[in-house]
Design goal:
The structure is a single chain. By secondary structure, this protein is mostly helical. The protein has a domain at 54-79. Helix content is 65%, strand content 0%. It is built from four helices and no strands. The radius of gyration is 21 Å and the shape is extended. It starts with 5 loop residues before the first helix and ends with a helix.
Length: 79
């Protein structure tokens, strides 16, 4: 994780202290409660090759949108 300078934190705290809108503060609180997963996953050579292949496919516009994938899954599940 990147190092955060104290000046940056102070600037954020000052900005938060200046907010009077409860909805904004509630949203900030919600974001702060999100648990950040900083787990490092080790991948096998085979998995790395699959990732490289998928990245190449995306570069060649061979992927599909999330919406289209969802539609295809729904169609498959309804059979």
């Amino acid at each position: 994780m990147a190092e955060v300078k104290p000046k940056y934190k102070t600037k954020l705290m000052d900005k938060i202290n200046s907010i009077s809108d409860k909805n904004i503060l509630d949203e900030i609180n919600r974001l702060l409660e999100i648990d950040v997963d900083d787990t490092i996953y080790e991948t096998s050579i085979e998995q790395k090759n699959e990732i490289k292949l998928a990245q190449q496919q995306l570069k060649n516009n061979q992927g599909i949108s999330s919406h289209k994938a969802d539609d295809e899954i729904e169609e498959w599940l309804s059979k």
